[in-house]
Amino acid sequence: MTAAANLEFRQAMEAAAIWLARLHADDCSDQDRTAFSQWLAQDETHRRAFNSVSTAYEVAGVKAGRWQDELQRATAQADTQLWGDAQSQAHISTPAQAALPRPARVSRRKVLAGAAMLAAGTGAAGWQVAYAGTVTTGLAERKSLRLNGGYTVQMDAETTIRQPWMRSRRLELQKGRISLQTLSDDGQLFTVTTPDYEITGAAMDVDVCFTSSRLTVSVLHGNVRISQPGSNPVLLHEGERLNPQGIVDRPAMGPIIAWRNGQLIFQNSSLTEACAELNRYDSIRLVPDAKAGAMRVSGTFLMGQNKQFAKAMGELLNLETKAEGQSIYMITS
């Protein structure tokens, strides 16, 4: 098994352990059982992991046999079901199936005993990630997701989101930038929350950025309501933006959403600002000196092309470029 496959299976084991504990909890709901059915049918790795975890739980006295019928059914249906978007790099949920029968009640002591045993083998840190439905992107990483409730999310680099499993029309943006497009126009509201704000709308296409406790919301389609405790709500309509200063304006949307297509558009930005943005998408760091950093830059540039950007700026702005390790220094001549 490759390192990547081993990591995937370990993460599936962590999720399976949480699922089995949840299925035997006294307050397990029909929604929980339906969500488990979705997860199980999503991937062969999930089914293998659940089978392995079931065996481990037997040691703690928690019977998992009643779920084997669902495991067999999911395996049989795997070749005929389509789960999620072909472009998705990660999935949190899949189309619904029928709810499962309720398991027999067992003591919380036994459930927790099984959970503790699995934690010792796989590491408890991943459990919270699996249970919370948290997805994070790192440096130079972007993801496209299809989530519960009929909407898609594009995640920018260095972004963290969380979708509570049973709150299919609610998404938490903990940091970074996302674009959110709803796929239905049924009038039901979707909500994006940040640590300080709540953004709500029906059918919409929005960009939401939350960095350093500052919020930017740009509306390409639809209308949204932005709420903050202690302040009057702000209503945004198509073509409007709430900028980090809390002012509503109507900027050109092209530069704002260019990141969705792997591009960055600068309009009279300082070289320091441009380099800081480009550095989020490349392991090569651009480091302009103070004088070079004050120079102005305009144009459209590809993400992940810092070497080419440095070369172009050296020619256009008459800068000396010097590569040292993973950094390129841009120096005024």
Description:
With 333 residues, the protein is of the alpha+beta class. The protein has 3 domains: 3-132, no CATH class; 143-251, Jelly Rolls (Sandwich); 262-332, Phage tail protein beta-alpha-beta fold (3-Layer(bab) Sandwich). The protein is 33% helix and 29% strand. The chain has 10 helices and 19 strands. The protein has helices at residues 3-23, 30-42, 44-59, 68-77, 108-122, 125-132, 253-257, 271-278, 290-293, 306-316, and strands spanning 90-91, 134-136, 143-147, 151-155, 160-162, 170-182, 190-193, 198-201, 205-211, 214-221, 224-227, 234-236, 241-242, 248-249, 263-270, 285-288, 296-302, 319-324, 327-332. Strands 1, 2, 3, 4, 5, 6, 7, 8, 9, 10, 11, 12, 13 and 14 form a 14-stranded mixed β-sheet that branches. Strands 16-19-18 form a 3-stranded mixed β-sheet. A two-stranded antiparallel ribbon has the order 15-17. Strand 13 and strand 14 (248-249) form a beta hairpin. Helix 1 (3-23) packs antiparallel against helix 5 (108-122), helix 2 (30-42) packs across helix 3 (44-59) and helix 2 crosses helix 4. It is flat and about 70 Å long. The N and C termini lie far apart (53 Å). Mean pLDDT is 77; it is low at 57-65 and 78-132.
